[in-house]
Design goal:
By secondary structure, this protein is of the alpha+beta class. Strands 30, 32, 34, 35, 36, 37, 39, 40 and 41 form a 9-stranded mixed beta sheet that branches. The two termini are about 20 Å apart.
């Protein structure tokens, strides 16, 4: 937001007014050694040292020549010369244009740095526990900003080195973990080798001798053409502030002119920096010399030289590389041993680093359609037998025709993670290193179909810096056209799957496979070509030819270690039960019971997402090693195991601790499956609340729990509805009728049972079918719009949709559970029948309120035991106040009075019963305005045949009408007749409303327009117009001629967007017009809110403002 400016006030800032170089281009290599100066070794260029600005909106006067320079602090220790950069100091290098850099060639950046152990500067956000330091990069440190950033982040005493790469367009960009456990006062060597050209652009990373590679092949993350142009003498965007607007691009060491965070953290020392263009071709003689010597001994220096010299030309080094691996395998074997131990490549011996690098490179580059012929004589990787697991040498390599369901169509009404393609099982397994042939005998082209080897195909290098297996072990090949053969292979081996794109509709397709091994498989009826015999399935498990078995159902597929296979004596019962579970979820979600695909559960030694138990991915992986396929485990107590769900009396076991532990952990898997389903979601990070609904409904509807037991097991707090109600009533926000969102201690709904208890309450009152009807309304809206309704649903929109779906006024239900409706929405829904069933529940909750301090402390001590956020409860415990209990009772009493008591026309008949709520003589069923006696039939202001309620231009003046923003208010609390209107749109479509806000992608051309209708007495008087925006819980104000700036929320610092205006009756404000918000600087997807206000010069201190904002959801462009 801080980089967005309105077209009318945007003024480009001047950047490179102070040139550092007078020459047009530098040498192919620039090296800085910081031996008492900032000049490069050839004295052709000089780095400049600056101090970062604290206010990113006021960068030293607006242009870069006014930035404050810093005096470099040079030092020398143990023969090492270096420069020290304080927390707010950074270095600016010559621009890429000045260097003559051309990213169509390989170029390399080397830096030697040290994070120092000192008293870190603390960022101005006191709630931010991290300490951050930019090491090197082209931007302030955002995932999707243009170029890259290397940064160190210290959290709870642990430091990690990571990299962002982005193109500045609003695409997601990459976040890449380089190394964990970064130590202070320790020198590190980092090499980045940029290969931004060709079909497989990448950045090779060598950190202290440990190699890794970030491939840049995902077009929805980065546009490589933009990245290439940026590094090839490109410029920063015109939307950049702090003197960088439309300026030549370049590198910065230690920070950036501005940013969020602004160089927070510890001081940084730089020993050397070098950037060079790598000459075309490779010195194969040198590489062969290194490989030959490495069979005896090898040094870190030689390994580093190998990485810098090798440019992916395999042929000249093939013989020596193979020989090196053969000898290494004979002497060392597998790199990653059995067990859970995770290893850092940086800790490997130089010989192991080289073996690791060569194997991962061979997988990435040779096991492809273009180069598969080069793998014929390669040795088998020993790690394949450790993971994904061994294939019996005696297992028959078979030729078999497989039948694939070639129909796959997503549903426009909802979105599942990873739905772009679907996997079809084959019942076959590919042994490590063996070439398999697949032929397409039919007359279909099978466009964009792929054959995939391995169920684990995510790249771990993006999130991990330590491993217990190779980061990439799954690959795929495009299936050749009709009558042609496709050869495939994988040095690690894996299950064989056919990957089909969305929109495929070719029916059943037969493919011939030669050379694969049968995998133990059981499928329900209807899966043509897959085994449906239980006896054969169990016999194949007993053979243990391959590491895994698979169960294939209608709603669920399972890939599980073979050592557990014998426990699945009744696989049909498991699959049918899983079908029941997912059917219950679909009912709750308001979606068709027949899913677009079966969800897939698999295992992995190392799941794709760090710092979590599961990923919300397709397939979803449980953290479980393959083990020895010949073993026969006694039980399967993994918390993800589907075997648990066919157990009798699922919630009855109280003695077996393994079963209890499994049951207690089951909700975590369904939590991630909840994320995968992308339900309609409210604000305040409620994407971490409604994801608990799937387990709640299946526990209640399928596994035999009552609804309160289901609620208890659906989250970590172990709260039933009564406990969740107490948790809600204790909230200080709830007690003053505010929405549960943030309190002084934490988010109030994320992960907390009270966050999803409101829908469980509705299920308890009216059945899960009612919750399904609510979600179905959003589903149907998504079908009509051609895009699913998921994130950023407003509170009013959800309350309105829910109430209309059930034909009940649910405002009191949402009121109690901490989501109050606006006054206009309360009025709009007051004509619906009352949710009278909720009154009894309210009485129950009222009786829970403690009557004395002893009861008060007993409740708190019970609930604090599993809360997960003790701070608020400890505060409650220390501050007993009997009046607070009365506040709770009074609020419940007020809510109870709302139920069935609204009588708009005062005729003694409540609206739920009255057939003419406003007593205007027109039945509500025929009344366009059933709660407004002044309007009974539609008004047609411009006489064009369309009522104003359905006319987008009521007065036919050519200017689209704007939706009303209800609840105008004043600062003093005085009533006002001022009115506010506003909306957001893209592509000149109708404006979104406050109760049904639109969603925009970051590249969409967005308009935000508002109108302020001032009080009649203010017409022709002078005053100011104000615009305040909320983005990621931070306030911004639009300042005239300066764009958006951070606002601290105090009236004294509020600045006008339009200053000294003479008011008309209606005053139109164009905030944005055709602005793509991603390129304009809005890096992260979020919900945005825009509020409008005015004051008069005659009455300073009074402010008239819109209590309801213009809002919309900013979503990623993919």
């Amino acid at each position: 937001m801080r980089n967005i400016v309105v077209n009318a006030v945007f003024k480009p800032l001047i950047f490179w007014a102070l040139a550092v170089l007078s020459v047009e281009s530098l040498a192919a290599e620039i090296k800085y050694e910081f031996s008492g100066n900032l000049s490069d070794s050839s004295l052709q260029s000089t780095i400049t040292s600056y101090i970062a600005v604290m206010d990113p909106e006021d960068p030293g006067g607006g242009s870069y020549e006014n930035m404050t320079t810093a005096s470099p602090q040079f030092a020398s220790e143990d023969g090492v010369d270096f420069v020290n950069l304080a927390w707010d100091h950074y270095l600016r290098l010559p621009t890429f244009a000045e260097q003559g850099l051309n990213a169509s060639n390989t170029f390399q950046v080397d830096v030697r740095f040290r994070i120092n152990e000192d008293n870190p500067h603390k960022y101005i956000d006191s709630n931010n526990p991290d300490v951050w330091r930019n090491i090197l990069g082209t931007n302030e440190g955002q995932r999707n900003a243009m170029g890259f950033t290397i940064y160190s982040e210290k959290n709870d005493g642990e430091s990690r080195l990571s990299m962002f790469v982005g193109d500045g367009s609003g695409r997601e960009g990459y976040m890449y973990a380089i190394a964990d456990s970064i130590q202070e006062n320790y020198w590190y060597d980092l090499t980045l080798i940029f290969k931004l050209y060709g079909d497989n652009p990448s950045i090779d990373i060598v950190f202290n001798g440990a190699p890794s590679r970030l491939t840049l092949t995902e077009s929805d993350r980065v546009d490589n053409e933009k990245l290439n142009a940026f590094f090839s003498g490109g410029k920063y965007s015109e939307h950049h502030s702090s003197g960088l607007s439309d300026s030549p691009a370049g590198l910065f060491i230690g920070g950036f002119p501005y940013g969020d965070p602004i160089n927070q953290g510890m001081s940084l020392s730089i020993d050397k920096f070098e950037i060079q263009t790598v000459k075309a071709g490779q010195d194969s003689a040198k590489l062969n010399q290194i490989l030959e010597s490495a069979t005896n001994d090898v040094s870190t220096t030689l390994i580093q030289e190998f990485f810098q010299t090798f440019s992916d030309d395999w042929g000249p080094i093939e013989v020596n590389a193979k020989n090196y691996l053969i000898q290494y395998f004979e002497n060392k074997g597998a790199i990653f041993p059995a067990g859970e131990l995770k290893l850092s490549v940086a800790d490997f011996s130089p010989a192991t680093v080289l073996a690791y690098y060569l194997q991962q490179w061979i997988f990435d580059n040779l096991y492809t359609a273009a180069n598969l012929s080069k793998t014929a004589d390669l040795p088998i990787f020993p790690d394949a037998a450790v993971y994904p697991g061994p294939v019996s040498e005696n297992a028959p390599r078979i030729t078999k025709g497989i039948i694939i369901n070639g129909n796959y169509q997503t549903d426009p009404g909802y979105m599942l993670n990873g739905q772009e393609t679907v996997l079809r099982p084959t019942g076959l397994y590919v042994p490590a290193g063996e070439i398999i042939t697949i032929s397409n005998p039919g007359n279909l082209s099978l466009k964009d179909w792929k054959v995939r080897i391995g169920i684990s195909f995510f790249d771990l290098e993006g999130g991990y810096a330590v491993y217990n297996r190779f980061p990439r072990i799954g690959n795929s090949f495009v299936i050749q056209g009709q009558g042609q053969e496709t050869q495939i292979a994988n040095p690690f081996g894996g299950g064989l799957y056919i990957e089909i794109p969305d929109g495929s509709s070719v029916g059943e397709v037969t493919l011939n496979v030669q050379g694969a091994v049968e995998m133990p498989t059981y499928a329900l009826a209807g899966h043509t070509g897959l085994n449906q015999s239980v006896s054969k399935f169990l016999a194949d498990v007993d053979k243990a030819d391959v590491p895994y078995f698979e169960l294939i159902g209608n709603s669920f597929n399972l890939t599980w270690p073979n050592r557990f296979g014998h426990l699945y004596q009744d696989p049909q019962a498991v699959l049918e039960r899983m079908d029941e579970l997912f059917a219950a979820v679909s009912q709750m979600a308001g979606r068709p019971t027949e899913r677009i695909r079966p969800e897939w559960l698999a295992t992995d030694r190392m799941i794709p997402c760090p710092s979590t138990v599961y990923c919300a991915s397709y397939p979803l992986h449980a953290d479980l090693d393959v083990g020895d396929p010949t073993l026969r485990e006694e039980n399967d107590y993994n918390s993800a195991s589907p075997l648990q769900y066919i157990r009798n009396d699922y919630f009855g076991e109280t003695a077996n601790t393994d079963i209890i532990s499994q049951r207690n952990g089951a909700e975590i898997l369904w939590h991630e499956w909840g994320h995968l389903h992308n339900l309609p979601t409210l604000i305040c990070q409620e994407q971490e609340t409604n994801v608990h609904l799937p387990f709640t409904v299946l526990a209640d509807q399928v596994l035999g729990a009552d609804i309160d037991t289901a609620l208890r097991y659906s989250g970590f707090q172990d709260y039933d509805r009564n406990d969740a109600a107490l948790d809600t009533m204790f909230s200080p926000n709830w007690q003053v009728d505010k929405r549960l969102c943030l309190d002084a201690w934490d988010n109030e709904v994320r992960y907390q049972t009270r966050g999803w208890a409101r829908l469980v309450e509705i299920a308890g009152l009216y059945g899960w079918e009612a919750v399904g009807k609510i979600h179905e309304a959003f589903y149907k809206r998504g079908v009509a719009f051609g895009a699913p309704i998921n994130y950023g649903v407003t509170d009013d929109d959800f309350i309105k949709t829910a109430s209309e779906a059930l034909n009940l006024n649910l405002v009191p239900v949402f009121d109690f559970w901490g989501v109050p409706a606006s006054s206009m929405m309360r009025n709009n829904l007051s004509g619906l029948p009352s949710a009278t069933e909720f009154k009894e529940r309210l009485t129950t909750y009222r009786n829970l309120i403690p009557n004395n301090q002893e009861e008060y402390e007993a409740i708190i001590n019970r609930l604090i035991a599993t809360t997960g956020s003790r701070g608020r409860w400890e505060n409650y415990l220390a501050n007993y106040d009997p009046s607070v209990m009365q506040v709770m009772r009074d609020k419940i009493d007020r809510i109870q009075l709302l139920i069935g008591s609204t009588d708009t026309d005062g005729d003694g008949i409540t609206n739920g019963t009255d057939t003419d709520d406003d007593n205007d003589g027109v039945l509500d069923s025929n009344d366009a305005f059933p709660l407004d006696a002044t309007q009974s039939v539609g008004v047609d202001t411009d006489g064009d045949g369309l009522f104003d309620s359905e006319d987008s231009d009521d007065d036919n003046d050519g200017v689209p009408d704007l939706p009303v923003l209800p609840d105008a208010a004043t600062l003093t609390g005085a009533s006002t007749s001022a009115q506010f209107f506003g909306g957001a749109r893209a592509y000149d479509k109708p404006f979104g409303t406050w109760y049904s806000p639109p969603s925009f992608k970051k590249a969409d051309p967005v308009d935000i327009i508002a109108e302020v209708k001032v009080e009649p007495g203010h017409v022709n008087t002078a005053g100011n117009l104000y615009i305040v925006a909320v983005y990621y819980e931070e306030f911004y104000q639009l300042v005239e001629n300066q764009g958006f700036q951070i606002w601290d929320g105090t009236l004294s610092t509020l600045k006008p967007a339009v200053n000294g205006k003479t008011f008309s009756a209606v005053n139109r404000i164009t905030v944005f017009e055709d602005v793509a918000l991603g390129p304009a600087g809005m890096a992260m997807a979020a919900f945005l809110y825009f509020y409008f206000a005015y004051d008069t010069l005659a009455n300073v201190g009074e402010l008239y403002y819109s209590n309801t904002p213009v809002s919309f959801d900013l979503i990623p462009d993919f």
